[in-house]
Amino acid sequence: MPKILVLNGPNLNLLGQREPEVYGRATLADVEALCRDTGARLGVEVECRQSNHEGVLLDALHEAGRAVKTGELLGVVLNPGAYTHTSVALFDAIKGAEVPVIEVHVSNVHAREPFRHHSYVSPAAAGIVVGFGVDGYRLAIEGLVRQRRA
Ligand SMILES: O=C1C[C@@](O)(C(=O)O)C[C@@H](O)[C@@H]1O
């Protein structure tokens, strides 16, 4: 069965308790269950990982790039959290590993503080889903599967 990696970055382990007026009440476990259910409906296995460490995210993207080349992985659904707005290294990893990435943000970053308006990840992304709450993960998985099966 083809696979998708759902990769969550810093502070997303706090979903559900973290600023619920911005991010809602769903926990990371809820999000991961939603992702696995979405994958099951589409005939895709979903692996979920979360890290608060930039280097761990980079290593996961490099590994994902290798798995895409062997045909084992379709791509990555990535919520880079605050690294979205700071990390040239994430941009370089996505480009360098040649991994199809759908960037997801739970909140509408463009309606928030100006420092959230710029993303280093977006120019390297194959698609972007912003502002749909945690349902954005479902939309991103559906979009990635459609893109990769087209
Ligand atoms: O950690 C996050 C979460 C976020 O990526 C989102 O999902 O809305 C938006 C980022 O600006 C923020 O730093």
Automatic annotation (TrEMBL):
Catalytic activity of the protein: 3-dehydroquinate = 3-dehydroshikimate + H2O
MF terms in GO: 3-dehydroquinate dehydratase activity
Root EC class: lyase
GO biological process per UniProt: amino acid biosynthetic process; aromatic amino acid family biosynthetic process; chorismate biosynthetic process; quinate catabolic process
Residues noted as binding substrate in the record, renumbered to the chain: 79, 85, 92, 106-107, 116
One Pfam family linked to the record: DHquinase_II
EC number(s) stated in the UniProt entry for this protein: 4.2.1.10
Secretion signal, residue range per the UniProt entry: none
Site label Transition state stabilizer, positions: 18
Active site: 23 (proton acceptor), 105 (proton donor)
Keywords associated with the record: Amino-acid biosynthesis, Aromatic amino acid biosynthesis, Lyase
Pathways per UniProt: Metabolic intermediate biosynthesis; chorismate biosynthesis; chorismate from D-erythrose 4-phosphate and phosphoenolpyruvate: step 3/7
Taxonomic superkingdom: Bacteria
Family that this chain belongs to: Belongs to the type-II 3-dehydroquinase family.
PANTHER family in UniProt: CATABOLIC 3-DEHYDROQUINASE
Function comment: Catalyzes a trans-dehydration via an enolate intermediate.
NCBIfam families associated with the record: aroQ, PRK05395.1-2, PRK05395.1-3, PRK05395.1-4
Record text on subunit structure and interactions: Homododecamer.
Name listed for the protein in its UniProt record: 3-dehydroquinate dehydratase
